Amino acid sequence: MNKKLLVFNWKSAPTTVDAAIKLARATENYLKSLKPKTQNLKPNVVIAPPFLFIEEVGKFIKKVKLGSQDVFWKNIGPYTREISLRQEKNLKVKYVIIGHSERRRILNETDEMINKKVLATLKAGLKVILCVGENLLIRKRGKKTIENFIENQLRKDLKNIENLKLKIENLIIAYEPIWAIGTGHSDSPEDAVEMIKYIKEFLISNFQFSNIKVLYGGSIDGKNIKKFVKYKEIDGFLIGGASLKPKEIKNIIKSII
Ligand code: PGA
Description:
The chain has one domain: Alpha-Beta Barrel (TIM Barrel). 40% of the residues lie in helices and 15% in strands. It has 257 residues and is an alpha/beta fold. 2-phosphoglycolic acid binds at residues 9, 176, 181-182, 217-220, 238-242.
């Protein structure tokens, strides 16, 4: 089985730098202490803290990689409150989450903006974790409507990507049905796998991208992850709430090896 990727999206928590360091340390130490049967089973773990704590957290992690929850597409200039790619790169950020549904929904981030971020981040040599996923209304309309919706997001968010010299391992997709995020009700593993397969096939037929990693995200915890890990189509997980609790972190990582 392939090495899984675990991305811990802390969102706006915790509230102090001390708490952020404590959490990062717990994750790092647990990962270090693991002795899987084969090295290949040890997951790649990424922490995406609030930007405020990125620098401090970055000092404490070695095995765990540093991620960011967003980025602005310009390197320098008058963009109030935005964080540039160059700033993130200088702080040793390796992965950038782009197009999270909370940003799309609450902050009105559009596919055009997301597309600019995706292209600029890939150009800068960082890894993109592009989030896509449908809301409950679309979900209720059935499989074909969900597929069309996701295809539309991918087409717009990846527009002009063929003009880049893309390192295929730098593009990662996270399938995150919106209705499953933070609700305690994850998708069923079977439905998630079906959508992930669909996304992979679409990326091959439309962009000739094979071997793109696709993660699942939405209410994954230390318990229900066990039902998902056995599927080889799921290359890893994007995890919010549970990634803030040391006990959950242990169970999540344990269930992967
Ligand atoms: P959740 O969040 O694990 O709390 O559902 C996932 C996400 O938003 O990426």
